[in-house]
From TrEMBL:
One of its GO terms (cellular component) is plasma membrane. InterPro entries: DAGK (IPR000829), DAGK_prok (IPR033718), DAGK_sf (IPR036945). Its cofactor is Mg(2+). This is Diacylglycerol kinase. Its EC number is 2.7.1.107. It comes from Acinetobacter schindleri NIPH 900. ATP binds at R16, Y23, E35, E83, E92, Q93, H94, K101, D102. Keywords: ATP-binding, Cell inner membrane, Cell membrane, Kinase, Lipid biosynthesis, Lipid metabolism, Magnesium, Membrane, Metal-binding, Nucleotide-binding, Phospholipid biosynthesis, Phospholipid metabolism, Transferase, Transmembrane, Transmembrane helix. Its main location: membrane. Pfam families: DAGK_prokar. Belongs to the bacterial diacylglycerol kinase family. Mn(2+), Zn(2+), Cd(2+) and Co(2+) support activity to lesser extents.
């Protein structure tokens, strides 16, 4: 059995890390330029994360507040990637394509709900 190695795979060691960093930065740039939802969630992060540093919460609570914000950003990047792959395959209406996009959207809904619930529960503990 022969081992298949993609001709698109990079090198190893430090060069691989540098390449991965460059690809990641290109992904951020593409998402920012082409995805309104990414920009909106980034704006939410730019507001909520600094706000978490001035809230009268414990370090663990602050870590949770930041983590759920970053999770929503991660989910949006993955959702956008799914949409790009589906659109690359075909722009034709297809039930499986719709399902993939709807599930990506549902994942983002869960991530945004997690922000709301986490922040709400933590802040309610200080208000009540």
């Amino acid at each position: 059995m022969s081992s298949y190695r993609s001709p698109y795979k990079g090198t190893s060691g430090i060069q691989r890390i540098l390449n991965a960093t460059r690809y990641s930065l290109a992904g951020f740039k593409t998402a920012f330029q082409n995805e309104a939802a990414f920009r909106q969630i980034l704006l939410i992060n730019l507001i909520l994360i600094p706000l978490s540093f001035v809230m009268p919460v414990s370090r663990v609570e602050q870590a949770l507040m930041v983590a759920v914000c970053l999770l929503a950003l991660i989910v949006e990047l993955l959702n956008s990637a799914i949409e790009a792959v589906v659109d690359r395959i075909s722009m034709e209406q297809h039930e499986l394509s719709k399902n993939a996009k709807d599930m990506g959207s549902a994942a983002q809904f869960v991530a945004l709900s997690l922000i709301t619930v986490t922040w709400g529960l933590i802040l309610a503990g200080y208000l009540i």
